[in-house]
Amino acid sequence: MVRVFPAFRQLNEITLLETTSGEGSGESQLPPKPDDNEILIRHTLSVDPEQGVELLYRRYYQPLCTHAVRFVGSREIAEDLVSEIFYQFYADKIFQQINTSYRSYLFRTVRNRAYNYLRWELSRKTPLEEKDYPSAQESQQPDAITQYEELYQDVEKAINTLPIERRKIYLLYQFEGKRFKEIASDLKLSVRTVEVQVYRASQAIRKVLKDKWLLLLTAALFLSR
Amino acid sequence: MNFPITKELLFACFNGQATALQKQLIDEWARQPENEEFFYTCLVEWELTHPQYQADVTKAIDQYREFVANHTSKPASLVPETLELKSRHLLLFQWYLAASLVALLGISWLFRAELLNRTYATEAGEVRTWTLADGSRVTLNANSSLRVPRFGFGRAWSGSPTREVFLEGEGEFSVIHTQDHRQFVVKTANPLDVRVLGTEFTVYSRDSRMRVVLNQGKVQLRNPADESARTIDLVPGDVITLEHQKVQRKHVEDPKQYSAWKDHLFVFNATPLSQVAKMLQENYGLKVTIAEPEIAQETVSGSFKATSADELLKSISKALDIQATRRGKTVLFSANP
């Protein structure tokens, strides 16, 4: 499946690193204490970065993926997002610039990116029908930490509004990543039925989510005024 | 406030059982770095005990190791050291070749973004210029990035009939007209492509707002998803804005005012403070609060030279006769007592 990620790294990640590098103005700041649990990892990263990142994988890959999947709905996409974070962490030597725990950095980043991905996903396919969009002057990234919690809980609620059979089919497609043909043969349905169910499910979920979370538009209509 | 934020409360929040008030208290509490650490510690524990699924960590580490190997050295050559093979080994060799090729393609596919593209980026408050492989120049405003293909950009390649770049933020382009007349296309997260042959123009694309200004030459705007939709052709001085699916076109005498940022000049034309706040956020990553709603409507006009956020804050607060207090990345505008 061809998937193209636009640049999800938002300005928040750059400010993230600047904030955590101890540059305040007008306030005396002690650098936050490095986490005691991560002392071994910190040391390994300084002598053997490749191995250090591997230790981070062993400790955090699983919780990062299961957290990300709450937002993006697909295991494959969650794993791609998380892997991309680790690769960049290694390749750009981000570990040298971090004064908070690696856990904080990794989770802040994955929430950031999962949020962006979800917004992008919602904006990509929503048809243009309404005239009134919420006038959001709010900043693009949530700054209240529990807004991420609210988002993935809204995603879960949206999925739970689906009728049972439709929900099952949708999850097989989105979460498990099964294809229409596989689902059709597993559940003894026609491929067409599966397609329709998945389509209706994603429309319903989008509708529930976009009123609150989405401000963007899509390609369809604007030039044909 | 001394409301105790416990692990149990955080777990309840992760489970969706916290009240709005509790969430707000957590938000406030988490602004302290030590508390934020505790938040994520609890989040990890909660995810480990309530996972949505179990990921294959071993497989992920294997892929990571491949990435590291490819990242630090050139991709493995597929030509074997010796071509002298006994016939009974030939089959094995062919199998090995096929497997390596598949693995290499698989890895390249996975990291195609890394291998195929190069990204230029600016940080908060930074303005920087680069020359691209085809000779075109791009100046990026603060907090922006431009992704450019590594191959087939300077010289035509069968896979790239156009020179395509992907912009996030704001940039001024000075595009060279190539000998083979390949179009230069600026793509963004907004549904509007900017196509030129050779010219000077500015593109702004943040959130769902987009603006294209033409300095000289000719530019064509096109909806990337709808081939049959009408295109928009610009002449120098034209300014197109796209917001909330509405396209607006106007013409100005001096389009250069839109690239004043290149000289660290900020130009305001009866701009309300609320909009200035947004610009501070976009260019400097500052989080701005306005204490009194009345002053948010006040407008500022004029051009201010400012090489840093603090300089700009000083100029704005003087111009509007208000106070600007900055603490790290947060700014508060308030009326003068």
Polypeptide structure, described:
The complex is a heterodimer of chains A (about 220) and B (about 325). By secondary structure, chain A is mainly α. Helix content of chain A is about 65%, strand content about 0%. Chain A contains nine helices and no strands. Mean pLDDT of chain B is about 80; it is low at about 75-90. Classes of the chains: A mainly alpha (about 220), B alpha+beta (about 325).
Task: Describe what is shown at a glance.
The complex is a heterodimer of chains A (225) and B (337). With 225 residues, chain A is mostly helical.
Give short descriptive properties of this protein.
heterodimer, A: 225 residues, 9 helices, 0% strand, elongated, disordered N terminus, B: 337 residues, alpha+beta, flat
Quote the average pLDDT of chain A.
77
* Terminal-residue CA separation of chain A: 34 Å
Give me the strand/helix succession of chain A.
HHHHHHHHH
Largest sheet of chain B: 13 strands, mixed
DSSP strand (E) fraction of chain A? under 5%
As residue ranges, the low-confidence spans of chain B are 74-90
- How many E-type strands of chain B? 18
Shape of chain B: flat
Produce the secondary structure layout.
The complex is a heterodimer of chains A (225) and B (337).
Chain A (H helix, E strand, L loop, with lengths): L10 H10 L18 H9 L1 H24 L2 H17 L10 H24 L20 H15 L3 H11 L5 H8 L3 H23 L12
Helix pairs in contact in A: 2-3, 3-4, 3-5, 4-5, 6-9, 7-9, 8-9
Chain B lengths: L6 H9 L4 H10 L3 H17 L7 H16 L14 H24 L1 H5 E5 L6 E4 L5 E4 L4 E5 L13 E13 L8 E4 L5 E4 L2 E8 L2 E8 L2 E4 L9 E3 L3 E6 L2 E6 L13 E8 H12 L2 E4 L2 H4 L2 E7 L3 H12 L1 E6 L2 E6 L2
Parallel strand pairs in B: 5-6, 15-18
Antiparallel strand pairs in B: 1-4, 2-3, 3-5, 4-5, 5-8, 6-7, 7-10, 8-9, 9-12, 10-11, 12-13, 14-16, 17-18
